Structure formats: structure tokens, C-alpha cells
Amino acid sequence: MTQLPGLLDTEAIRKDFPVLDRVVHDGKKLVYLDNAATSQKPRQVLDALSEYYERYNANVHRGVHVLAEEATALYEGARDKVAAFINAPSRDEVIFTKNASESLNLVANMLGWADEPYRVDHETEIVITEMEHHSNIVPWQLLAQRTGAKLKWFGLTDDGRLDLSNIDEVITEKTKIVSFVLVSNILGTVNPVETIIRRAQEVGALVCIDASQAAPHMPMDVQALQADFVAFTGHKMCGPTGIGVLWGRQELLEDLPPFLGGGEMIETVSMHSSTYAPAPHKFEAGTPPIAQAVGLGAAIDYLQSIGMDKILAHEHALTEYAVQRLAEVPDLRIIGPTTAEDRGAAISFTLGDIHPHDVGQVLDEQGIAVRVGHHCARPVCLRYGIPATTRASFYLYSTPSEIDALVEGLEHVRNFFG
Amino acid sequence: MKLDSMYQEVILDHYKNPHGRGLRDGDAEVHHVNPTCGDEITLRVKYDGTTIADVSYEGQGCSISQASASVLNELLVGKDVAEAQKIQETFLELMQSKGRIEPDDAMEDILEDAVAFAGVSKYPARVKCALLSWMAWKDATAQALGGADAERKTA
């Protein structure tokens, strides 16, 4: 077995993930390389979910019975874990949402309904990039259409990085918000946060970072990032589906208006008007995803027991190995950076003129799970003149031998359609 | 191997050597997409009365969607619209069967090369690929011939 410096003890880690033992298609060992879509869940998270439902289930806040108090403590305890995980200055800056998409939509709606100086209107501009996931494009298109604001974006270089050569023309005095992805889900690119934030701060624009592909894979420090909002989702970081996070700076959360109205988010309600609870509750209308938050807390405990810096090193070693092995496959073109430098562990590629759908199907027959299509980032496919890509993405339990299996599988694909 | 049930030789042949590909003159044109995978097709129909004079198409997509368009062209051009609709409905029934229909002789007589797609119906993610051109043809025909059953279709 290939030994690379920096690898985790995957033999031990994989024992925590029951699904990784599965065999598919008549005895093929599952090779799960679709981690950028969603991660698998360790036993510790599955146990936390069932324990919550078996012992504590109740609606949170305001209940005076034992279960309600315990469920509230677990739910709010999960908020503490998230706050510590991202080094938030205050737990009240952590808003639970359904997923990263909802987090980003929440920011867009806060700004659309805000008073000055945050208000996005027809005299202002919104800046995104061409490598965003649709979840960080469409909410801003909606906001632009509804307010008359102008939507602008950074283009991409041929080697899969942001083209910031015109940064002073893209981010201007009119810019109200700059929203961009920290690690691209399709290209794998890690973006230069500092350069963008420095320019945004010069013109007084707010900054929102989509950390969906970053939070699961590297240490996160929202204070060091210096952004105003950071969004990510639980299910890509060993947590359950249905739980996302929006972190926002406290003074902004105090000033900005709520988006969804309902129970839990109010202070008092009369038939004429209402006043609102302080953040984060102001932004959490209705019964929240309680079990899912508890599950996310367990996922954070799990990841921290291994160490985010060690997970980052593991994935970096795998990515270095993968780009080197994939370069051996004839007709394979990596879409995105071709080295592991400033690169995450999602690698998109094309294979000659074989359509990714066909590549994925033949790989699946060998038990290898990859993702095919435009990965909710169709503008990237248009930019590089391709209909779709095949994407392999790794996580803390991925191994070099799984990369070897992928490379062998691709040989088989070439023979099949050759 | 199970994969061979999807990628029948007939399908791979149509994929590598498509029939009637390219856009030609038509009475109606439609553009359909399969948003899950980015398959796209632009398809035109040309009618001579109720006879299908031509089905021309251009698109990008996987082997299944491309081969299916080729088979459609081979099967439908020259047929009367009523007969073509029966073929389309039979193909739809087969593709929605989740692998439960084993085509019999009667079905083979109707579908000819298109029975090769029976194996695709076992793969839910790929059924839309196989149906893309057929739904586009149905839509284009409704537009070309008018009538109450004209419908706008998105994949």
C-alpha cells in the first residue's frame, strides 16, 4: 500500500464509518469518492442522533419540563461547539439554518430589506465570481432583479483561478456586498481571501464567504478570515443533512432585519406589529432542526478529536498523489489547478470526448462512486467549453489505494468506449 | 456483466455513427435540456402532411442520449404521425418500466433498434437521458401540427 507523508491512520478511521464497509454490484468494494457532494457519517454521529430521539426529544426553548430543558441544552450546546469550531467571538453569532444555500439566501434577503447603510438597491452593486456554486449565484441574481442592483463578477483564468487583474474595476465604491467561495466545489481552487477582503474593506463593502467546501477540510477561524458572513453546511462535514450554519458579525446581526417570521424569532407580538428576539434567534423562525444540530455537534467533536490541521495535511497528501496519478491517464484533462498548491481535494476532469455520464456509469459498475455533471456550477463548464466533468473528491477516510482504483477504473472506461 | 445490459452494442453503434445528426429545415424547433447532467438537444421536425419528412437534431450529451436521438431519427422518419406516436408511447412505457418489462415480439416489432434501451430502464438516473430526444420530438410535433395537445415541456 502506498505510504505518503501526512496521511491519517485511515484503517482506524474507516472503522467509524459503517457505510464504507459496503459492497455494491455483486461484491465490488465501495470506493466512495463523492465527498464534495456529501460526506459519510461516523458511528459517533449516528449514535448522537438516535440517542437524542430515544432519550431527549422535545421542542426547544420555553418548555418547562425536563425533556424540553435537556433538548434546549443539547441544541444550544451544539451552537457552542460550532462557535468554538470556527473561533467565533460570540456564540450569538452562530445562526442555524437548513443548509449553506439557506444561509446565503438569508444574507441576500437581509441586505435586500435592510436600511442604510447596508441596503442593496438600484444604485448599488453586488460582486460574485464565475466559480460560484449556483447557491451563491441565484440568490444574488434574485436580489439584483428585485432591487435593480447591478450584479458583477470576477472571471477565471485558464488554469482555474480567479482573475483578479481588474479587482479595482469590479469592486468599487458602489459595491455593497462581495460574496465568494473559499474553496471551489468544481475546480478545487482555494481562493485568495485576503486580497479580495482588503479591496472590499477599502470601499466599505460587506464580505460573505461560502465555506461549504472549506469548513469540512481545514481549520476555520472567522476572526482571521475577517469576513462579515461565513456560510457552510453540516452534511459535508460528517454531520446529518438538514443543518447549515450562517456566522455573521454581531453588530450586523443586530442591525439587519429578519427574513423568515414565525415562532421563536419574536419578543412580543400584537395584531399590529411585533418586536424581535435578539440574534441568533431573530433569524431562526419556527422549530429548528434540533436533532440535526445535535448531530452536527457530534460531527464537530469527531473532527476535532482527529484534528482539522491533520485532516488538511491528509487531504493535501492525497491530492498531490491524485493529480500525479491522474496525469498518467491518456486524454485526461484536469479542469482546475493541476497541482496540489492552493487546492482542495475535489478534482474535476474530462476524459477525451467520453461524456462524464458514461464515465461515471462505468466507474459505478466497479464500485467507484464519483459525481458527474456540472456540479451546480454550470458557468464554470461554459467558461471552459465543456458540457460537464467527472469529479472525484476525497475526505479524511480516503486512501491512496482508492485513488489507484480510480485510475484503474478510468483505464477500463477508456477501453470500454475506445 | 450488468453494464452490457445498458451499453448494448446497438447503442454504442448509434453513438459512434449517429443517423441524421445535424440541423436541417423544419416546421418547428425545440430545445430541451436535462438539468441533472447538462445533456442538451435542439430538434426540428419537418412534416409532409401527416408524414414525418425529417427529424434533425444537434446536441451534446452522453452516449445514451445521443444514441437515442439517432434511433429516433432512424425509426420515425417516413412514418405517419399516428404510428410514430404509438412508437413514442411504447418507448416511454418501456423506459418507465424500471426494468420490469421484458420486450416481447410485438414490442420488438414496434420499437426495432429501440428495444436495446430496455436495460437503461433499470438505471433511474439514465432514463431521462434516453427520453430526452423523444420528449423533444413530441413537443416539436405538437408545435408543428398544432392541436389541443400542444404542450410546453421542460425536461
From TrEMBL, chain A:
Keywords, comma-separated and alphabetical:
Pyridoxal phosphate, Transferase
Which cofactors?
pyridoxal 5'-phosphate
Domain of life of the source: Bacteria
Looking up InterPro entries in the UniProt record yields:
Aminotrans_V_dom, Cys_dSase_SufS, PyrdxlP-dep_Trfase, PyrdxlP-dep_Trfase_major, PyrdxlP-dep_Trfase_small
> What is the E.C. number?
2.8.1.7
Residue intervals of the Aminotransferase class V domain: 31-406
> SUPFAM superfamilies this protein is in?
PLP-dependent transferases
Write down the chemical reaction(s) this protein catalyses: (sulfur carrier)-H + L-cysteine = (sulfur carrier)-SH + L-alanine
Q: Which Gene3D superfamilies match?
A: Aspartate Aminotransferase, domain 1, Type I PLP-dependent aspartate aminotransferase-like (Major domain)
Family of the protein in this entry? Belongs to the class-V pyridoxal-phosphate-dependent aminotransferase family. Csd subfamily.
- What PANTHER family does UniProt report for this protein, alphabetically? CYSTEINE DESULFURASE (PTHR43586), CYSTEINE DESULFURASE 1, CHLOROPLASTIC (PTHR43586:SF8)
The protein in question is named cysteine desulfurase
User: What is the source species?
Assistant: Streptomyces musisoli
UniProtKB/TrEMBL annotation, chain B:
> Which domain of life does the protein's organism represent?
Bacteria
Q: Which Gene3D superfamilies match?
A: 3.90.1010.10
- Domain NIF system FeS cluster assembly NifU N-terminal, by residue range, is 6-129
Which SUPFAM superfamilies does UniProt cross-reference here? SufE/NifU
Checking InterPro entries in the record gives: NIF_FeS_clus_asmbl_NifU_N (IPR002871)
Checking PANTHER family in the record gives:
IRON-SULFUR CLUSTER ASSEMBLY ENZYME NIFU HOMOLOG
The protein's name in its UniProt record = SUF system NifU family Fe-S cluster assembly protein
Taxonomic source organism: Streptomyces musisoli
Lineage, broadest ranks: Bacteria, Bacillati, Actinomycetota, Actinomycetes, Kitasatosporales
